[in-house]
């Protein structure tokens, strides 16, 4: 058995059609891949968080928006997610919409393994070209305390997250998921905290394609423009603690914790991801301060 594609090892296939997932599994396993299956988009996000695959193959039905919802949620949960969409439609409009929503490629069903392998190879090559690996020497770090204060520019969040987890590898081996979970809470602090964008407003603006305009409007609003997020970071040999405080009005966090990530778009989804990773997620006061604790396994 051999993996012909390089660093991509695990695949998550999301489709209600058993025949398609069987074809994908039978075709990719002999090439050295580990293939997991989610029986439809309803459990696609939870399986993505559970298995943390290198690549997702996601079916998009033209008669339902569940496939697009799952695509958006995966890409929101992990901006670096690698997703190949597939569908029965021969209309290139659907393919372009999938790419616009975050997919890296679109394949027409029935799936041919040779085409699928070529698609995976293209994605792997593009990812290799843009990847820059820079790992600190963490072997000498046994205690860290620092504070980061940042504004509401969401475009700069990846750089701030890198600063926040710079030495976290000394305690946490899964830094990729740490970045995703931490990023969700940081994004909530900006969007729903400092900028006071409600979940209803975000959902409506996203559906209309006006979300960037809403962000720009709130960021330039004098009532929100000067607000900042403060992150206090503490790490010792046994635990990693992030305390994130925004300058918003808070929210009723006691009612938003829900086992269904689709029950609440925005903050609910972010909390679902964070609670799946951190040992403890504890909100304080009015809800504008949260403490995220990761305990050494």
Structural description of this entry:
The chain is of the alpha/beta class and 297 residues long. It has two domains: 10-130, Rossmann fold; 144-295, Histidine kinase-like ATPase, C-terminal domain (Heat Shock Protein 90, 2-Layer Sandwich). It has eleven helices and ten strands. The protein has helices at 18-28, 44-51, 66-77, 92-101, 113-130, 157-164, 175-194, 199-208, 211-220, 253-256, 267-277, and strands at residues 10-14, 34-38, 55-59, 83-87, 105-108, 144-150, 229-235, 239-245, 280-284, 289-295. The strands form two sheets. A five-stranded parallel beta sheet has the order 2-1-3-4-5, sandwiched between helices. The protein is globular, with a radius of gyration of 20 Å. It starts with 9 loop residues before the first strand and ends with a strand.
Name some characteristics of this structure.
alpha/beta; 41% helix; globular; single chain; 19% strand; 11 helices; 297 residues; five-stranded parallel sheet; 2 domains; five-stranded antiparallel sheet; Heat Shock Protein 90; Rossmann fold
Helix-strand blueprint:
Layout: E1 10-14, H1 18-28, E2 34-38, H2 44-51, E3 55-59, H3 66-77, E4 83-87, H4 92-101, E5 105-108, H5 113-130, E6 144-150, H6 157-164, H7 175-194, H8 199-208, H9 211-220, E7 229-235, E8 239-245, H10 253-256, H11 267-277, E9 280-284, E10 289-295
Parallel strand pairs: 1-2, 1-3, 3-4, 4-5
Antiparallel strand pairs: 6-7, 7-8, 8-10, 9-10
Helix pairs in contact: 6-7, 7-11
């Amino acid at each position: 058995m051999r993996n012909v594609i390089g660093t991509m090892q695990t695949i998550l296939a999301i489709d209600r059609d058993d025949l398609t997932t069987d074809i994908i599994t039978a075709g990719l396993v002999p090439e050295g891949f580990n293939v997991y299956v989610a029986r439809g988009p309803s459990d696609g996000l939870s399986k993505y968080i559970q298995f943390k695959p290198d690549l997702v193959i996601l079916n998009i039905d033209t008669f339902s928006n569940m496939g697009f919802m799952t695509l958006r949620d995966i890409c929101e949960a992990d901006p670096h997610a690698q997703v190949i969409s597939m569908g029965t439609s021969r209309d290139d409009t659907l393919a372009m919409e999938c790419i616009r929503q975050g997919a890296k490629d679109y394949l027409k069903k029935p799936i041919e393994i040779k085409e699928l392998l070529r698609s995976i190879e293209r994605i792997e090559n593009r990812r290799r070209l843009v990847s820059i690996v820079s790992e600190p020497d963490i072997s000498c770090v046994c205690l860290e305390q620092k504070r980061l204060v940042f504004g509401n520019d969401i475009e700069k969040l990846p750089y701030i997250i890198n600063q926040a987890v710079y030495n976290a590898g000394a305690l946490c081996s899964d830094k990729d998921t740490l970045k995703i979970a931490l990023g969700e809470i940081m994004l909530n602090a900006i969007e729903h905290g400092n900028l006071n964008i409600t979940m209803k407003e975000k959902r409506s603006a996203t559906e209309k394609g006006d979300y960037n305009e809403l962000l720009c409007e709130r960021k330039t609003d004098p009532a929100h423009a000067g607000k900042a997020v403060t992150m206090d970071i503490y790490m010792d040999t046994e635990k990693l603690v992030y305390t994130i405080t925004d300058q918003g009005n808070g929210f009723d966090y006691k009612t938003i914790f829900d086992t269904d990530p689709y029950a609440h778009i925005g903050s609910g989804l972010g909390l679902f991801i964070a609670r799946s990773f951190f040992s403890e997620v504890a909100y304080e006061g009015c809800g504008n301060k949260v403490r995220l604790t990761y305990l050494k396994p």
